[in-house]
Design brief:
The protein has 512 residues and is an alpha/beta fold. The protein is built from 21 helices and 16 strands.
């Protein structure tokens, strides 16, 4: 059987030239300029009379399913029909709901965007292929700056969210209103804590959990530490760095107030060495390295310790993963340029003006009407969830339709799930108010002058950096692997990227 080490090396055998070609020629939304909005607006004018007369405007909605690997299309259709029935006498809009497993979502949504088959879609700053920065750069999203203030969706979200989520003063995204700061925790299964008497109050660094990982291995768990096929450097080191681009190879050093190369930092070597050591000891699984774990692996009993994005009510994890868990803080919570874009909606730039307006009408209702919010998030009452006597809901175990608040709507309107605190909305306000503001909050890196180089660097990360951050090398191999990684980045044009980011950041600081 292949070891994690062998897999790590095998992971790095791809040609850099091929990676650069792939980065510059494949996997992005094919779209024309924003001027296409003008053309579609002309086309939409011919249908405006029909829309104003009450004829339904149909919009296709694409969203990923994180809680169910393979959505039940029959149930999704029932939810769609129930939604259309409910909103029928409120807005002249009907939706075509496309629920897609998260593993397939980005590719399918990307193709639909290119083909003009989607109007409203879910995106985030951490997603591949259709991430927020990319779709703006590709002119694939509708400029909503002038339209937004005309609809209730705009008033339902605090003003600072709109300003924080803007690009160059323009609004392209409608954030799901939830926590607007970023921080990370280590997450521990409560049953294992009780069995092995773990005292997580003593966990102050990643190395502190090693005795617990040894217990997990002794327990026979497949994933003593589950990375959820995620490179974690840019998450665990937020206190030191602001990773403004969402990639781990470039960041603002908060102490130096300057853009730096993080790959050659002491912190990166420390983290990669620790992951390599954990892999050697059997605490990491090759499944995470080869990205064969699924988004639902965390819902099984195969893991002992994993990570969790800090939220105002961390007890949400109990509900999401159907087991009791406990948290230990790894970072502070930080307000940064992209923290409002961890979960949001956008409208395709290929949509007509009528379709864009219809999407905003739908979102306005989704963010202000509890019945619609519950339908869209939880599904059909009696099938997908039950309503308890106290007004809270309990999700069904049937697994036909199941979404979470963070990727659906505003926390201020959605019904509480059983076990959630009655003061949930207050907790979210407190969380946002108490977060620390990064020194680089508000800075957005315009990559247009180094677009090809940056895309090539991302491909290099996928080939080199991901393996380093998921135990692909033993500690003795890490130093050389980092040098090879840095050389591959430099060959891909990294120094051009670094220089551009440094100049832009220094210029931005003058306006701060």
């Amino acid at each position: 059987m292949l070891t994690v080490k062998n897999l790590g090396k095998k992971f790095l055998t791809g040609s850099l030239v091929a990676a650069m070609l792939a980065a510059t020629g494949c996997g992005t939304v094919s779209n024309s300029s924003v001027s296409e909005n003008k053309e579609t607006s002309k086309e939409s004018s011919s249908t405006s009379e029909k829309a104003s007369s009450g004829e339904k405007v149909s919009i296709s909605v694409y969203r990923p399913s994180f809680n169910i690997a393979s959505p039940d299309t029959t149930e999704v259709k029932k939810v769609q029909d129930e939604i259309n029935s409910y909103i029928g006498d409120k807005i002249n809009v009907e939706i075509k709901l496309n629920d897609i497993g998260s593993g397939e979502y980005t590719d399918k949504c990307n193709l639909a965007l290119g083909a003009g088959e989607v109007v409203l879609f879910f995106t985030a700053n951490w997603m591949q292929t259709i991430k927020t920065d990319d779709v703006v750069k590709q002119n694939a999203v509708y400029d909503l700056t002038e339209l937004l203030p005309k609809y209730d969706i705009y008033k339902s979200i605090p003003d600072w969210v709109w300003s924080a989520s803007a690009f160059g003063g323009k609004n392209y995204f409608i954030p799901c209103y939830k926590e607007s700061a970023e921080g990370y925790n280590l997450m521990f299964r409560k049953d294992l804590m009780d069995k092995y008497k773990w005292d997580i109050s003593k966990v102050k660094s990643l190395k502190d959990i090693e005795p617990m990982l040894a217990d997990c291995k002794k327990e026979g768990l497949k994933y003593p530490y589950l990375t959820q096929k995620t490179a974690m450097f840019y998450r665990y080191y937020l206190n030191k760095y602001d990773f403004f681009s969402g990639d781990s190879f470039i960041a603002v050093d908060k102490d130096k107030d300057a853009v730096v190369d993080t790959v050659l930092s002491d912190e990166y070597k420390e983290f990669a060495s620790l992951m390599g050591d954990w892999a050697d000891k059997g605490y990491l699984s090759e499944d995470d390295l080869t990205k064969t774990t699924t988004d639902t692996t965390i819902q099984t009993a195969d893991w002992g310790i994993s990570w969790w994005t800090d939220v105002p009510n961390n007890d949400e994890a109990d509900t999401r993963y159907k087991r009791e868990v406990e948290m230990a803080r790894v970072t502070e919570d930080w307000i940064q340029s992209n923290t409002t874009l961890g979960s949001c909606y956008a409208i395709s730039s290929k949509a007509s003006e009528e379709q864009a307006i219809a999407a905003l009408k739908f979102l306005s209702l989704l963010y202000t009407d509890q019945k619609l919010a519950d339908l869209y998030t939880f599904g059909i009452e009696g099938t997908d969830y039950t309503r308890n006597s106290d007004g809270t809901i309990t999700k069904s175990d049937k697994g036909l339709y199941n979404h979470s608040a963070w990727e659906s709507t505003s926390v201020t309107i959605l019904s509480l799930e059983k076990g959630e605190p009655a003061n949930k909305v207050e907790l979210y306000s407190k969380f946002n108010d108490n977060a620390k503001k990064s020194i680089a909050a508000g800075f957005r890196f315009d990559k247009s002058s180094v677009d090809a180089q940056y895309a090539a660097c991302v491909q290099v990360f996928n080939e080199f950096g991901f393996a380093l951050e998921n135990g692909g090398y033993s500690p003795a191999e890490v130093e050389k692997a980092i040098k090879d990684y840095q050389k591959a980045l430099d060959d891909a044009g990294y120094q051009d990227v670094l220089a551009a980011a440094q100049k832009q950041y220094e210029d931005w600081k003058k306006t701060r």
